[in-house]
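Exercise 3.2. Students should predict the tertiary structure of the chain below and write it as structure tokens, then compare their answer with the key that follows.

Predict this chain's 3D structure.
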Amino acid sequence: MKTPQKTPQPDPENVPAPIESTQIRVANIVSEMQDSYLDYAMSVIVSRALPDVRDGLKPVHRRILYAMHELGLTASAKYRKSALVVGEVLGKYHPHGDVPVYDALVRMAQDFSFRYPLVIGQGNFGSVDGDSPAAMRYTEAKMAPVAMALLTDIEKNTVDFVPNYDNTRKEPALLPAAFPNLLVNGSVGIAVGMATNIPPHNLREVVNATAYVIDNPDASVDDLMEHVGAPDFPTGGLIFNKKAIREAYATGRGGVLTRGVAEIVEGKRNSFDIVVTSIPYQVNKSELIAKIAGFVTEKKLDGVRDIRDESDKDGMRIVIELKGDAHPQKVLNYLYKHTDLERMFHFNMLALVDGIQPRTLTLKEILEEFVKSRVVVLERRTKYDLDVAQKRVHILEGLSTALDHIDAIIKTIKKSADRDEAHGALMKQFKLSDLQSTAILEMRLQTLAGLERKKIEDELKEKRALVKMLLDLLNSPKKIRAKIKEELSDIGERYGNDRRTRIMKGEAESINLEDLIPEEEHLIVLTQGGYVKRMKPQTFKAQRRGGKGILGGTSDEDPVLEFVQANTHDDLLLFTSKGKVYGTKAYEIPESSRTSKGKAIVNFISLSAGEVITSLLALPKSAKGKEYSLVMLTERGIIKKTQSALFEGIRRSGIIAINLEKNDTLRWARLMKTGEELMLFTEKGSAIRFRESDVRTMGRTAGGVRAILLRSGDRVMDTAVITKGEKEKKEVFTIAANGYGKRSHISEFKVQRRGGSGIKAMTINPKTGHLVGATIVVGDEEFIALSHSGKAIRTTLAEVPLLGRSTQGVRIMKLEGKDNIASMTAL
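Answer key:
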């Protein structure tokens, strides 16, 4: 039988005291979790993740800059270890880890992250390839000059100071920023349940927009966009669609399309390269290259032979070498579509207002909040300066009184037993304040000298004027705002620079690029190698007939195919050997110097493999009515007439212009008006003249009809239009390969029916070479002729004699070696 065990009794000395009812709080767990999570969320939002609209900084950036300010790491100071700055920030202001502090410091020093870096770094601070920076013990840093403008006058009670995390010192609640840093450098952050993504902008543009808001409180978004056209990313690139940008500025949210800058250039192996010189903001360059290489490896992207990163300290350069049969524009379009070479930047302009309220802000609201904050800063600075000036005036008045009664002052001091008695006696006898009496007692005997006394009087006068000026400033909101504008302008001049991101033509409601381009006459030169350039006619100075000409920029390896005169607003139609036509604008062809090579035509249109440009036509806006026709002529003498309206707005990818017969090539395209006549010229000097009405109008994809019956071995070389009115005054100007040319009266060429063999237009022999060009003139124009080697001559047609159609002409241009005439045009 077991003995029953006794229940152990608690030791009376160790019995816990009864819990007071006030120590227990009954709470709903759901409400408690909600309250706790909200506290945590607000702590992250206010103290870590979101920038303040007033200085554009998050707490960590603000603390880094203030710590550097306290350490004396100004732009003119010596570099100090980054570890010193991080330690200063952690020990005094930022109760978090050292890694995020150093990461924030590094980002402020990266010129590809910040549009205007706030820190100057020495050492490895990472790269646009995503390379990590060196450890903080290896790098050095100090403040950039522009960062000093964020801290200017911080010692003058311009901002509130709050206790730091352990209440051992004070830190600024914000910085007295002198420019809208939130817009200038942008911000990226993820808080709890919200995020911000504000793009950087150009300092000069933001300064101008802020000044406009100050002068025009009712300014609209469109008014502000006259000054701030779009974000300005540190990596450059292109930005599209003004309508989307406007929406983002008006609402604080939206997406805009950005692209890197890519150009198609001629490679080393008779192929083309795509050269990328900038990439969109926040894109990792090495990841971009790896992605392109992956597409090539996976056979998703054809035509790429090699990818090279040739970037250096002078700038970015990624070379994508293409194969000989690749379609450059097609490859580039693929890269835009499938890689970060093109990406959307999503605006989310969320920031803290008054330091506590997160709000999505419009462009105008950001500028207004900055101006409001800046007004407060200037008022507090002015009050501080006024207080300092008034105290100095008070002391100077006491010193002046002392100097006026110096003997009595000295006597009073000598009679006193000690300093305190002298201090009280001065206050009582001369009705001085405590400060004034102290200043008199500390005054040196040298002050009694005449010049020293004059200095006091001058300083007193100066300080009284300063007090008056500060009082006027303090009592005038208008003057305060004018002062803000003045200081903003100074910052813009000192730290501003040119825009890096180019704003491209947008969609509806965007600025029409044509409206910004003056209408000017230019020469468009196209070479057989597919290079095109635009030049002003004045590039070629006038010479006398028979000269050697001047260098025109092409060479024997890439002779001139054709060049035309065009207005910058004209549509350029480019006809190919396969009967297709492509379109671009004349102003899209870059203006070049006379000696430059020009740009590859594949930068502007999308040619298919084996297709070459054979003719160039400028289509003015005035030539798009029903009375205008487009006449095309092939090398075998087939002609086709089509309404010019069918060729409006042609895409870069091209459309069919004529259905060619086998072994035939489309060679010319001319614009004609109803009732005009056409002349065709052959290589062996024959010509035919017939009416436009002899050729019926056909559809765009149709073939043509015979224009001229060619003799054996002959081919069509040129065509010209005889315009209406005063046909008896017209002349035919012909030029042969070896530089011989002449004028002949139009009456010598009778009107025939199309399809005949024509009549002689020029005597062709070994001396003249074959016929290369002809046009209809009046006789007082100028013309420019280009040779295959790129030589050019410009002279007046009056220099060319009027001769019969059966003659060989005279020497117009002296050619060297095997060089010959390639093309000509009348001005």
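Discussion points: Confidence is low (pLDDT under 50) at residues 507-513, 544-551. The chain has 17 helices and 41 strands.
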